[in-house]
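Tutorial sheet, problem 5. The two components below are modelled jointly, 408 residues in total.
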Amino acid sequence: MEILTTDSGWVFDEMSPFIAELLRILPACAAPEDDAARKRIFSSPTSGDEPEADDDWREYVEPDLRELFKTHVDVVTADLRGIRASEVSLHPGSVRDRTVKSYSGLLAKLPSLTHLGLIVGGRLPLQPPEGRPREDLVKRIEFIRRIVSELHEFEKQRDVALDQFLSSFCPADGESTLLPLSDKPGRLLDPPERSKAVQHALKRFQALGKFRHKIKESVATGDLSTNPQSVEAFALSIPAENGRAWIHTLNQARLALGARHDVTDDDTAGQRHHGGEKGFAIMQIDFYGMILSVMLGRTEL
Amino acid sequence: MPRIRGMKPMFAATGGDVLTEEEVQTEEALDIPWNVIVHNDPINLMEYVSKVFMKVLGFSRQKAEIHMLEVHLKGRSIVWSGARERAEAYVQEFHSHLLLATIAKAR
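Model answer (structure tokens):
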């Protein structure tokens, strides 16, 4: 995905089907129809300390707020109808070509990576087993290290969409914690650090395996084998004058999602990681926040 | 940002004999400032909160960021104090920007 800022507004270009769908569901996510979202979007002006004032607020102010918010969402909904099919060019040898091939290669390996992760967690001894040469263990760990290294390299190349998606499930803690199994050929780190690194890698493998189907959908790699010159993509143009409505709706959706899934400071700071619906909601919050931040840079509130 | 119509003062006089008593209470209340308090939430972007402060209260960027950080680090910040009706108007503005804001009598 690329976001182009122009004099007339923004163009979201080369969106994967997954990213386009995240945008399409924005108005639905922003709708304050459930209790949790409604309480956050239409919060009490007195923290509930003065029920009479809260009643007045609900009677006199909330309808106008509701109307104002709906106006913003309607603008965004109308813009979203303009999502159009596009195409990502994949000229042989280009950075994009290499990146997409890297996706393909990694995605093909995901099942074996997941399987390997299970082996690591279930059977790989952290100490050389009785009667087996230490070199055998070193080779196995070196093999795992290469896989982890490849995974790390892949992460460096992935685009914003995949980054947003994976980072909500797979924390990127940096190279130092990804590759510490062996600091020199044939020499293992001390068991506590090694164990920690293996467990960390295992979590990443499991997370990747669990969500590989969604990843496959998101990057639409199925087309690559039959059409190596391009992949399906979408584009959307947003007029500059609609920036305020977008900023509001993106924010409203983030707040509503946060309220529905009880998202905390630790969640948004990346200190806790969730799968399932909450993990997906946090990913949406991050993704919408990224767009909001871009638009905020050139829009008066 | 369009003003939000229709909110009446929180403790409006109701007429009749009660009116005199209410007026006395209101005059006394004028001496007590009301605080506009913005509360932390885990979702709103820091940059966005600063921009709302600049727009609604006319803060400089530096002052807006000081209050934004106070909200973020301490959980809340008193961003304005004064007459109740104006405080109510500010709270409405903050709510229209989806910030968690409340009004409370200063102690």
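Marking note: DSSP finds 13 helices and six strands in chain A. Full credit if you identified this.
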